[in-house]
Structure formats: structure tokens, C-alpha cells
């Protein structure tokens, strides 16, 4: 006989949309985590777009916090960057980064975190390995690339096709980060479900 943990009934929409002190703390934690992941630095492709570990923070924020709170964590992080804090890989910060080759990727982090959370926590249902994997891959990789690559091509004045093809250098690292995100998220569901805002359950 297979044990099964039931999913708590979702709260009414008005309650779910309310952000409390605990949410603010979690949003701050994931903004800080994204900053910490940039400390090792990165190395550039196309001369100016760095490969960093910070997209791991994007994926985790969406998967753990959910759509809106994950996106807010990224907005908080980017607001601090805009204020001049050197939180991006390599110690970059300030408004200039939002008009450079990385601008599309930074915007993609916000949209990507939202999409990850929307898919992973779809309908308030219990988390599954499959849906979590799909959410992380679609939001954390596909969406970020879909926003970042065209902007990078525009800023660098390069054709879109070669720019998209060149972005394949990001894929191996991003797939590793996606796998880490899925494992961490599903482990939290089982071992410490309170870490997730919706407190979902998973089939045993």
C-alpha cells in the first residue's frame, strides 16, 4: 500500500495574494542568495555576456517561492543592482548594466522566475518531479534565453541566428543548475515543506 500525503486545501485567492512578514523574509533571502551566487564571478562569451551561477538563484526562487514571490525576489535583487550595488558576477552594478548586452537576461530572470513558479505550483497541486523539472527548464532556461538572446543581439549588433547558436555555450551549465534546483526543491518538499510558501506535498 502506498502512503500518500494529502495536499492542504488552497487558501482563498485574497489570502494567497497577501504578502506577510514571512514572505518578505523569504524574498529577501532569495535576493541575497542570488547575490551570493555571483561572488565566484563568471567568464564572458561574446566578449560581454558572462556565464555565472546566478541563474541557479532564479530557478530556486521560482520553484520554492512560487510565481509572484519568486519574481519579486528577482525585482528586489535588480533594484539593488540599479542602486549601484556590485551584486552581479564580476562586481558589476548600476544602471549601465540595464542598457548593455546582459539587459535582456536580467529582465529574463524576473519573467523566468515567475514562469518557473507558475508551472511548478500550478493549481496549488502537490509537487511532482516531472512538473518541477518542466517548470525549471521552461522558465529557468527557455524563457531567460528567449528574452536575453534577442536583446544581446540587438545591443551587440549581431545577427539573431548566430547569437542564438552561440548562446548554446550556456546550456551545459544551465542544465546542471536546473537539475540541482529540481533535487533541492523536491528534497525540501519532503524534508522541510514549510520552506515552500504553498506547503505542497508530494507522492511518497
Protein architecture, described:
InterPro entries: BioY. It is a multi-pass membrane protein. The protein is 60% helix and 3% strand. With 204 residues, the protein is mostly helical. It has one domain (13-195): Orthogonal Bundle (Arp2/3 complex 21 kDa subunit ARPC3), CATH 1.10.1760.20. A hairpin with a 3-residue loop joins strand 1 and strand 2. Helix 2 packs across helix 4 (67-82), helix 3 (54-65) packs antiparallel against helix 4 and helix 4 (67-82) runs antiparallel to helix 5. The longest helix is centred in the last third of the chain and has 28 residues, at 129-156. The termini are close together. Mean pLDDT is 84; it is low at 1-16 and 199-204.
Write the layout of secondary structure elements.
Elements: H1 13-16, H2 21-36, E1 43-45, E2 49-51, H3 54-65, H4 67-82, H5 103-120, H6 129-156, H7 160-166, H8 171-191
Antiparallel strand pairs: 1-2
